[in-house]
Amino acid sequence: MTLAKRAFAASLWTAGIAYIFFAINFGGQILLARILIPEDFGVYAFALAIKDTLGIFLGFAVSMAFIHSEGTQDDFDAAWILSAVLGGIYLFAGLIGGGIIYYFYNNVHALVLIVICTAQALILMAAVYLAPLEKRLDFKRSSLVRGLSSSLGLFSAILMAWLGSGVWSLAGREVISAVILLMLGYLISDFRFCENLNRTKLKELFNYSFKMLFSKGMEILFSRFPSVIIGTLIGDKFLGNFYQARYLAGLPNTLLGPFTERVSFALYSTVKNNSEKISEGLCWINYFIVRVMLPASVLVFFAGQELVNFIYGEKWLFAGDLLQGLSGLLFFLPLFSNVKTACYGLGRQMWVSHAYLIEIGRASCRERG
Predict the structure, then answer these.
(1) Among 1, 119, 180, 208, which is most exposed with the fewest C-beta within 10 angstroms?
(2) Residue 165: phi, psi to the nearest 5?
(3) For residues 297 and 300, what is the distance between their CA atoms, to the nearest angstrom?
């Protein structure tokens, strides 16, 4: 089977499995939104934003570095070591950050942050075990594992929310999903940590990961920092509405993720020396995105409030107003994700960083004005 056919088959498997679990997760998200209150989502979104803000300094993307490498046992061992160290730093940072938030804010926000950082450490290790499958475009099994872990975590959250656990149902979902993902990833992976330290491989993966650090940091700053500001200055209720509006605005990008991110990155990394094939892939994906997302963004602009009211209920009406303001995000985010993935595959992380810096600078100037 040619590389193009393998990539196409991987995209179909990834998309098919992802869409099944997406429907399950979206239905579960609706149930959670109807059981819980905006303040619960506000606390969760605030802790999530703090955790992601830590990623500005810890977003090394080790699993992507492995996919971009030759994929040998030495590469896996190096990736395992880097992920273990990074996970330990996440746990430590979560404890320190939780202590600071507890001192200046309250204990609920602090404890939720620690729980979410613990889940992130587990996810980093799980991603290393799944990376070899994605390296060879075996997205059928990796997508199934990711979908199962996410759905089982969601079912647990719904049960906890129904029992009255409030925000802890959302925090518990993160940990349960991460534990299941790590267990299943370990079981299906062909690699095991052999305790071999190849300093050359460790340096190669670290160098690629370090280049990703600044790019991922800018991405997090662009996407999550508004949640930190809103949660700190305005409050949990407003942040809860903003979180749901941003979630709905990002759904199309999530749906197109199998084509614009996961499979595309593995493909672009494989043909990174063939600019013609990369250009062809970019054009075909963008051709599809434009024709699907333009009418969707127009629909959300005019009927965003009615859409949110239908999905979540009347207590989320303000989120509908916010969604209308974010309608342009539906169209441009998938296009940007496709180009961003190509840059990562080519090892041109700084191009993505420059794009985020320009947008962050433009947004800052607008706010000052």
Answers:
(1) 1
(2) -80, -10
(3) 5
